[in-house]
Amino acid sequence: MKISVHRLGRPFTATVLALSLMIQSGCGFKDIDKRIFVLSVGIDHTDNEEKPYKIILKLAVPSGSLKQSGTEYTYLTKESESIASAIRLLKTQVDKEIDFGHAKVIVLGKEILHHDLTEVLDIFVRRRDIQRISWVAVGKPNAESVLKAEPSSEMAGSHALFNLFDQNGVESSYIVTTFLFDLRRRMLETGIDPILPVLSASKDKKKIIVNSSILLAKNKDPLKLNPKETKIYNLLANNVQRTDLTVKRDDLQYTVSIDTAKTSFKIITNPKQKPVIKMDISMEGIIEESNQGMNINALKTFSKQASEEANKDITALLSKLQENEVDPLGFGVRYKATRLHSKDTDKEWLRLYPNMSFDVNVKVSIMSTGIIE
Amino acid sequence: MSLIKNNKGNIRKTLDWLSEEIKPSFDLVYKPLHIDDKHAELLYIKTVVDGAQLQQLVIKPFFELGNDRHVEAYLNSLPNLQDIEAKEQILLELTKGSVIVAIRNQLLLLDLKRVKSDSVLETMIEPTIQGPQLSLSEDIATNINLIRQRYHKPSLKVETMDIGEKTHLTLAILYDEEVVLNEVLDSIKNKLKSIKPQTVQSTMELNRLLNDKKRSLMPIMMMTERTDRVVYNLAGGKVILLLDGSHTTVLAPAVFFDFMSSMDDKYGSYWITKFLKLLRYFGLFACLILPGLYVAATSYNPEVFRVELALSVAGSRIGVPYPSFIEVLFLLVFMELLTEASIRLPKAVTGTATTVGGLILGQAATEAALASNIMIIIVGAVAISTFVIPINEMSFAIRVVRFILLAFSSFAGLAGLLFGLIGLLMYLAQLDSFGEPYFKIYLQSKRTETERTST
């Protein structure tokens, strides 16, 4: 009898353990249908000094048949003295666990830009469940209206704001993309300043337009870039491959579609000469549209005209940046990296930058006049 | 030649002892042959002896030849003649199908076996598109014949021994003396001598008997029924074990990657076989990790995959009552049952079983919201990719590993899954097959590999 009990002991324990596994699971276990996914987070400023932050969460509510009914969105808003406490309170408004794993767009209301951004964004870089590769954008007129806008082209299960930035959907030279990690880096690092795209929602909430951007220099007011400047910024920052260039000469007007563009710059500081930033930009493209017949033999002339046109625009933008003492292209970082470091390098650069002159050298090569003769 | 060459009385005694031992079997035949002054006695078990051959080789010549000296000389010259070592050996040989002839004070043992299972079967376990379509038979002599027919080399050695305390089946050890790894050969021979099983029915039993570890998961010998694979491995220096009555062979030593190779890999053109291999390893990983990945991705780390996927998984899980790992376990177990059922069932019913089980059960499970649609896809993908593994033994082992990985990921999500995979890798790496590392990757060229083995 004793022996049989002994023999049974081990298999018995094993069976009990195995069966208990059936009802056990790890501590992070939470089924996907018990979670609700935050797709984007919006932060607005309220006039209430007690509760300065207004948090808007856009949540995706999955439905059984994705193809027919599509994903529905729901919104949660809360005003609070800190973002974390707002999120805690928002948790009590839903029956599911709020999951920030897919919160890939953070929209900052236009008003909140006057706040200290490091304070506002602190929670997003501190929390482990928010991805550092989230995109950050500015919402106009406020974050709430951008988040609540549901563009008519938005399809089931694919969030329009993601498509704007992830280069899988639309690719445009007017869209600046800034990742959260990059924003944080640019905010902390001297010699480079953050730039954020501006999302403006139309009044009927059926459209989101993203073609301008905002520069946030340290300790300065935000500086707006218009669509054209945004496009040139993208070109200079090597962000886009595809852009276009419109040239006007007397009656002739044509647009060059640029397929490839490459920008490089050098900071030359000779003791005896004025410091200069030498910028080389080479572009290749074809003529896309014109109001007159284009002579294929005159491609060289066209290229030259386009180069001059681009040169003018680029120099104008660079001067604007310089005047406002903002540096989204990272001239300062380059300066620091290529000079012998001393404790005054930063100050040295701040002194130098307003006096820099720009030597912009654009080389546009127009390859053809398109496929029509 | 006969050793028992004693007087008449001694022979009489031996014959009497033999018939005493075998009685009361109905099929024991004791037949004295007598004409003129010629006299002989036959003793055999008629159900295992080839009657026609006996008639042709023994009885007919007995009556045709002049005197019994001629008959004795004739019988002694037959190729079927076996050596006699002891009385017990005669007894054993009688049960195998030999005939004892007592003539002129001499006992002669003639091998006149009748084998009904020597027809060569078609390949069933590992079919290939190209390559030979016939496998082995269930008779060892035929099998050795088949292998020798494909491997004409004098250095091919065939050693035989008896195995099984009760069944005394013939076991043949085949190897190419020039390339075989001697340590492996010695180790296999020693182990075969040291094991004393009561019965051995199939070559795969040897896999377990020859394994030092009592509880093992991975096969350390490879079972095959393909003669081309046998020959390929013989040439590669492996040891082949053949068992009488079994139409499969086992090869040793075996490394993990052997189990992932199909003979078609040698027959197709380069890029096709590379593609097929890639596909096979993809299948291996798919069937290993998919269930675990599903649990990890739905219950721990839904942020790893795209938001669209997360939303559609979440949507398809609406109304599923149990947590994801129970859902996976439930469907996986039913899939395993289905696989088992289609192996055990008579061939005529298998089709019905798979239809009812696979289609109806899967469909109904999603309709009843017991499982999500995506789960059904995963289980289907897992089931299919399991069958991609060419060697059955390995595919059984992988089926078990899958559940272990599922358990790991139910506990700790993706991290657990990765942890489990690393554990599996470590387990495989510490295994060895008769002294050869189990997870050995042959990065040397074929030539250097065989050169090393030949010395």
How does this model look, in words?
The complex is a heterodimer of chains A (373) and B (455). Chain A is of the alpha/beta class and 373 residues long. Chain A has two domains: 31-225, no CATH class; 226-373, Nutrient germinant receptor protein C, domain 3 (GMP Synthetase, Chain A, domain 3, 2-Layer Sandwich). Helix content of chain A is 31%, strand content 30%. Chain A has eleven helices and 13 strands. Chain A has helices at 2-21, 66-69, 83-91, 117-126, 143-148, 160-165, 180-188, 227-236, 299-323, 331-338, 345-352, and strands at 35-45, 53-61, 72-80, 97-99, 105-109, 135-140, 195-201, 208-215, 223-225, 243-249, 252-268, 276-290, 357-368. In chain A, strands 1, 2, 3, 4, 5, 6, 7, 8 and 9 form a nine-stranded mixed beta sheet that branches. In chain A, strands 10-11-12-13 form a four-stranded mixed beta sheet, with helices on both faces. In chain A, helix 4 (117-126) packs across helix 7 (180-188). Chain A starts with a helix and ends in a 5-residue tail after the last strand. With 455 residues, chain B is an alpha+beta fold. Chain B has three domains: 8-111, no CATH class; 140-253, no CATH class; 265-433, no CATH class. Chain B has helices at residues 8-22, 51-64, 68-76, 87-96, 140-150, 182-194, 203-209, 227-235, 264-267, 270-299, 307-316, 324-344, 347-367, 373-386, 392-430, 446-454; strands spanning 28-35, 38-45, 81-82, 98-103, 106-111, 156-163, 169-176, 222-224, 239-243, 249-252, 432-433, 436-437. In chain B, the strands form three sheets. Chain B has a five-stranded antiparallel beta sheet with strand order 1-2-4-5-3, with helices on both faces. Chain B starts with 7 loop residues before the first helix and ends with a helix. The mean pLDDT of chain B is 84.
